[in-house]
Design a protein that fits this description.
Chains A, B: GO terms for molecular function: DNA binding. The structure is a homodimer of 352-residue chains. Chain A has helices spanning 15-18, 27-34, 38-45, 53-66, 72-79, 95-110, 126-135, 150-158, 186-194, 210-225, 241-251, 264-276, 311-326; strands at residues 82-89, 115-119, 138-144, 162-166, 176-180, 199-203, 229-234, 258-261, 287-292, 305-308, 334-337, 341-342. By secondary structure, the first copy, chain A, is an alpha/beta fold. The structure holds a DNA duplex (16 and 16 nucleotides).
Chain lengths: 352, 352
Amino acid sequence: MTTGDDAGPIIQLGASERLGARPALTARELADLIGVSQSTVSRAFSKGTSVSPKTRAFVLEQAEKLGYRPNVIASFLSRRASSIVGVVTADFTSPVYIDMLDRLSVRMQELDIHPLLFNLQAGAEAGDQLAVLRQYNIETVIVISGRISHMSVARWAADGRKVILMNRDIPDAAIGSVRCDNSASSLVADHLWEIGLRRVAFVGGPESSAVSAEREQAFVRRVAELGMILCGREGGREYSHQSGFDGTRAVMASRPEAILYATDRLAIGGLDALSWSGGLSVPGDVSIVGFDNIDMACWPGIQLTTVHHDVPRIVDGAIELLQQIQNGREGPRKHLVKGGLVVRATTGPAKA
Amino acid sequence: MTTGDDAGPIIQLGASERLGARPALTARELADLIGVSQSTVSRAFSKGTSVSPKTRAFVLEQAEKLGYRPNVIASFLSRRASSIVGVVTADFTSPVYIDMLDRLSVRMQELDIHPLLFNLQAGAEAGDQLAVLRQYNIETVIVISGRISHMSVARWAADGRKVILMNRDIPDAAIGSVRCDNSASSLVADHLWEIGLRRVAFVGGPESSAVSAEREQAFVRRVAELGMILCGREGGREYSHQSGFDGTRAVMASRPEAILYATDRLAIGGLDALSWSGGLSVPGDVSIVGFDNIDMACWPGIQLTTVHHDVPRIVDGAIELLQQIQNGREGPRKHLVKGGLVVRATTGPAKA
DNA sequence: TTGTAAGCGTTATCAC
DNA sequence: GTGATAACGCTTACAA
């Protein structure tokens, strides 16, 4: 019953609910109530401590009944560490990053790890964030953004924070990362070849974008191997619809039969330039291909051929890394998640 | 230099950076170092305490120099309250809610208030969250979602948490809220009347959605006042593109000259059904109007006529409320932010 | 105005 | 395996 904006009228609260404002039970109080020492209560709640299974079960049961839950703030202070994880974002306009944040935050909650959100504006200083990380005793930081500088990441790591990078990597650094295999764009070249297209172009994101560069590189290499012609190439200032639109208009001067875009958003900008606003037929006049397989890609009126970016698996990888770090096992690891080509309706043989 | 995914190579860290792993300075250490008492340091950092301006300035200056920052965890424990604010979300697929989260989190950071993200899945229990709010000593919760039940909100409030609702309200409850004026949909009726359209229809969100209901109501009332004909009405299970697509197909049976949708996303689904996939002309065959004025609404190939939803001002309102609450001033307040009609290219006279 | 000292609710180090 | 007791780094009476 939690769908829609309005899940019913205000419901009268029972007596126990009303008492909520009373301060929460402390370990000491629970201990006194059930006749054990306060440290026993503490031990019952932390794993890897020496309590008899019987006592632990008893304490946990009573705690449940009386509504006791350890105060994490006190625990953080005492342990000089917190289970809060910093989640750093900067690209709320990117559907892929939003999807990652969505799934990641849900998964974290299931594990009782809570994300403190650091939404960095362009130009925010890494140092400022570092101070906050320290203030909160935050040990682990997950970066879901391509816009945070390597420098910032390096500083956090140098300060002893564990960093997990999503969708990017710092090659020779001992920093965990989980990302999709951008070289899958080579599959696009194969596909275009198979349907008989020879003149191809690439429309990318910002020049400084590693993601765009990797996707371009793998595509261009395979294009060359197959003996196809790379007739055009455009980059943008950003990963926006307008960028894809403008890039497409520009690259059409080279008369390509197909265009690969660094992301679906750019590709949809291209579809707009060509078809919605341009009066051309896709794929009749030109084929287009995206990368990421965002929700929009399968809208009835879009049906974009694209490379699948497996966000759920990337999130799984990040969660796995997170747990390894929190359990103190192993060092940083690099995950690379494969994606595959999804052929829809924006690619096909050229019109006769 | 923080645009693009890759902001340069790893930079060698200076000596002071490398030492970062050394534990942060405490108030006691700073106090000893600069020759004041620890409580003086504490006072210098909290406003409304009795310290001479001179001492405060001195302490703050030295703290800055030596890199001291109060540990907020200890502060939370001592104050039995935390400046962490819970931000509750559930609709990561809604551009408007994402935009709110984006802007809100940035504004909060500027104020040194940090958002702990609670991303609730459909069906998540309010009680579970409440336990976590207590564990973190969280006093204030901002709800950016229509899908969290009134019941949950009421329970948090009954437990003594301050709640700020964004984009919704619980009418007779003493709970703060900031939302857009959904009755602005009446402006749509006026606009359609002026361009000579008489048969209109409405495509809404889930039946349980208060937002959809309010937008529909104001529209329908004005339509009646103007003597226009409401010839059709469809609701969906959700606020998705597909819902808008399907709802449009259904409502076209009543041959409307114009359709108002509860949101832009639904309207774009409608545009897809009519134009991209349907071969009809918009606005030649039928005019369509959305609500929210999301980014997509102004894409070259969309140019959707819509009602502006002023997210920045709504966020301003929420921040204002937040500060009032944190300063202990005043009780809950209700803000209503006006929007206006944005006429673009999807409305116009019917084809001759 | 400033310093001293007693919490805040945990964890961790001791003995037993 | 369990119970006292000392941190953890702050805030806040209470004294000076």
